[in-house]
Specification:
This protein has 18 helices and no strands. The chain is an all-alpha fold. The longest helix is centred in the first third of the chain and has 41 residues. The termini are far apart. It is a multi-pass membrane protein.
């Protein structure tokens, strides 16, 4: 295949990737909305609802490194298609059980576990393959399309699910998800996952035992200060940003007594921020210094966490509270894309092919492990400590984490050109 044919195939990948992710994420959002509403309406228990969320996090945390390891040892396309097939079979099994015996809480929990395991293998393998699907010049566009697909489905999924809930049976929610997953599988099966795959220097991965190969992934991360800094930053960010995820609805509904319909609009503001910023990144040139951009956007996000406490200190009207938090959520969504898109490009280009699966598996594990821990910790803290104190302290800690883990020496290591720019701009002294 010559270069022109490869570019044509990469263009096909770019838009197939967007459509497949959008369909898959939309089906997943509709399914999640339907299942969540069913659990709450059937049990009326927030504990049952939280249990389902934890059962979706834990398998991802445990299985992500294994999925990454297998992604470095076997063709990633097999894992992507196999994981997607596992999702289809799991939800089809739940549909069959529902048709025969009726939907039960235990059946939902079991399906959630198997669905989470299958989607972990598919998601990690796909993330590690993006650099092989498109040319390097359009990696930023591919990462932006990924954010774009989730933002559109994040807006449309709950709206579509809300229109269906109460009018159709739960079986219809399952059928919609199965149809979306089948379409995603068909589209992904047409992709060439080795289009831009680079030849690996070391050829001993398959000769190593699984355990040795697993340890080699951690050793590789340990020898890469930039990747290690990114991993630890991701862990602490996911932990402390949970302060907003857990406390957002609690603050708006319980403390500020905002009308529930307005709370839905504030959450949609985040999805709109993701949408607009994703379109911007998809149309602009690749960021020159991605890690510097990440540092600035995370710093700005930390300031937004602190600012989100303002209506709890200064009394606003209900309308002002709504407008204020709508802007806050929009900024969170936009800054999330400004963080994730350059970071994704940097990870795709700086990690060697033979280790990419394992590193992405480790990233997924660290990110996922922080979320249930943060949910538990902040869920308890909001019961005993004023919300404004939690938000301000969390924001200040995040600023400290950014300044420490993404310090100038790490930035200059990632972008040596920064040191040259710094020397050129320093005043000359005699």
């Amino acid at each position: 295949m010559n270069e022109q044919q490869k570019l044509k195939k990469a263009t096909y990948h770019l838009y197939t990737f967007l459509v497949s992710k959008m369909i898959g994420a939309l089906g997943s959002h509709v399914y999640s909305f339907g299942i969540s509403m069913y659990i709450l309406s059937m049990t009326g228990s927030s504990l049952s609802f939280a249990t389902n969320i934890i059962l979706s996090y834990l398998p991802r945390t445990i299985m992500s490194p294994i999925a990454g390891l297998l992604g470095d040892r076997f063709p990633r396309k097999w894992l992507v298609l196999g994981g997607q097939t596992g999702v289809i079979l799991t939800v089809s099994g739940l549909l069959l059980y529902t048709h025969e015996f009726g939907l039960s809480l235990m059946a939902i929990y079991i399906a959630t576990v198997f669905n989470s395991i299958s989607s972990t293998f598919s998601g990690v393998a796909f993330s590690a393959s993006i650099a092989n699907l498109v040319d390097e010049a359009r990696l930023q566009k591919a990462m932006s399309f990924n954010q774009l697909s989730y933002s559109i489905s994040g807006i449309g999924g709950p709206i579509f699910g809300g229109m269906l809930f109460g009018f159709v049976s739960m079986e219809m929610f399952l059928i919609i998800f199965i149809c979306a997953a089948v379409m995603t599988l068909m589209l992904e099966s047409t992709m060439n996952f080795v289009l831009y795959k680079k030849e690996t220097i070391h050829d001993n991965a398959e000769k190593e035992s699984m355990f040795e190969s697993f340890k080699a992934g951690f050793r590789y991360v340990n020898t890469k200060p930039i990747i290690k800094a990114i991993l630890w930053t991701a862990l602490w960010l996911n932990l402390f940003f949970t302060a907003i995820n857990v406390g957002g609805d609690y603050i708006l509904l319980t403390i500020l007594n905002l009308d529930p319909k307005y709370i839905g609009f504030t959450e949609a503001g985040g999805a709109v921020g993701i949408l607009i910023t994703s379109i911007y990144f998809a149309s602009r040139a690749t960021v020159k210094f991605p890690l510097l951009t990440v540092k600035r956007s995370v710093f700005a996000s930390s300031i937004v966490v602190i600012l989100s406490a303002l209506p709890l200190i200064v009394t606003f009207s209900a309308l002002m509270n709504f407008i204020y938090y709508l802007i806050i959520m929009f900024l969170f969504g936009a800054l999330g894309v400004i963080t994730n898109t350059p970071l994704g490009v940097l990870m795709q280009t700086s990690i060697e092919e033979e280790y990419r699966g394992r590193v992405f598996g480790i990233i997924e594990m660290m990110a996922m492990s922080a979320m249930p821990a943060g949910t538990l910790v902040f869920g308890i803290l909001y019961e005993f400590i004023p919300a404004q104190c939690i938000l301000i302290v969390s924001g200040l800690i995040l600023i400290g984490i950014v300044l420490l883990l993404l310090r100038p020496s790490i930035l200059e290591m990632a972008h040596p050109e920064l040191k040259k720019v710094k020397l050129e701009t320093e005043p000359v002294t005699e």
